Amino acid sequence: LPHYPALYFLAPTEGSIDLVIQDWASGPTPYHSVHLFFTNRLPDVLMEKLGKSRCAKYIQSIKELYLDFLCLEASVFSLGMEKSLYHLFGPRRAEGERDALATKLMAVCVTMGEHPTIRHQNCEVAAGLARLVQEKLDAYHKANPNYKCTEQPATFLILDRTVDMLAPLLHEFTYQAMLHDLVGLPDNKYTHTFENSAGAQVTKQVLLEEADPLWCEFRHKHISEVLPEVRASLQTFMESSRSVSSMGKDKAKQTDIKQMAEAVRAMPQYQEKINRFSLHIGISQKLMELFKGKRLEQLAYIEQLMATCEHPDGSKPSEKDLRKDMERHLKDTSLSNDSKLRLLLLYIVSQGGLKEAHRAELLKMANFGPREEQTVNNLNHLNVTVDCKQVGLFSRVRKKKPRGAMKDDAYDVSRFVPAVKCIAEAEVQGKLSLSDFPCVKEPPASNATSTSKPGGTSLRTKKADPLWVASRASSSASEDAMPRLSGPRVFIFIAGGVTFSEVRSAYELMHEHKREVIIGGTNMLVPQSFMESLTTLSE
Q1: How far is CA 229 from the centre of its chain?
Q2: Quick one: which of 130, 118, 116, 117 has its CA closest to 160?
Q3: How does DSSP assign 284-315, residue by residue?
Q4: Which among 332, 362, 367 is positioned nearest to 344, based on CA atoms?
Q5: pTM, to two decimals
Q6: pLDDT digit string (tens) for 492-502?
Q7: What is residue 207's three-state secondary structure?
Q8: How many CB atoms sit inside 10 A of residue 403's CB?
Q9: How far is CA 149 from the centre of its chain?
């Protein structure tokens, strides 16, 4: 292809530059010319290395696109840094990781057209990261004086995983979170087995994304609501379909999921819509089977006692009763080791530590070995007190940290509200403490106490609209349900990973306060991956 130009799309790393240089190292030129596109800023030392290479005279253009992050949903992003917990909190902390993280966050701001007021949790990791992001943003704007930002600067709130150690461990029973936790959803792909219109068993991977209106409708709803609402949606669809009259009124009124699935397969002219109903019927059915089969209601009830320090009726649990329930579950041979470990970790976090003898007794009771003991001890790296000399149920629970509230209308097994929601809501309302969550730089006078009050018309420029939302505007099913938003954006970022309960909380705030809330993390956390990262934290 020596007569054609080449286009390279690259990460701004030494490895990428070496591969480009290698293409042009010897022999005839592989292409007529070359255009280089980088996902983020190319460091000066790599630019210099590229300039000294043979391919330099063939380079026609170099573009830095600032796309070094993943857009998972319209209001959710990830940096794809799966080992961030180890690099940020482990004993062998990597400063290069923190710098790379800050560069990626700078890319988020640049792409979104923001030069925000940066606030941070008052702790080492979050504060250090916030300062780095501020430095990189200031340097970018100095180098690009004509860059246009939104007229109402956003607030970018940087937290780290120590802000809430209960959220990554608790069972969450909303549709999306439950699917990731109990089934697994790598790259948002679900393996769906179903019976096609010919009666044959078919297995295929389905992408659960915002183009699917049913997924957008149900993803943040409690599983107990999803089932009847799937039935209701299917009923409505069937009654509005031309084929219903030929099926008879009895079939149209069936509410049994299996019977409904059979009924809709008889309507091939609506195959795509039917396939979506079939998919969510199957998922809902599977999740409910797992919920019952794993006896999660019993586990979750104890988890909620630990997390909220209250029974559903508001009464306080007794230390004796909770300990008795804990021991019963740890001795249960039918319960998996992962479930037992998850429960024990929650117990230690909620109690603010245990006496060494009590902790050893519980480890032995669960038949845990050195690996599980290491996982427990590694909580220390995340500012959790593991060894505590004092006794007293719930007397020490997260006194110095924002505590998640409880929902007034919650299910008994879903009462806990993540601390991140409480913090973000205070920010949206302009009530977030500046001493607990200081600004890196003095904010503008109009934004001094955190963000303008909601209300009025948005002054955002068209340039600042989320690029990934714009590209899906015609297909995103969540667009119609999204309220009209006003005021400056609020970004929430959690170094060490963000949970699906925290993602759900951001959407709830957006709907409740009519403010755009964008949430992200170094990576998406599910309990299993979090515990695996915790185990290796000291290695």
Answers
A1: 25
A2: 130
A3: HHHHHHHHHHTTHHHHHHHHHHHHHSS-TTSP
A4: 362
A5: 0.86
A6: 999 999 999 99
A7: strand
A8: 17
A9: 26
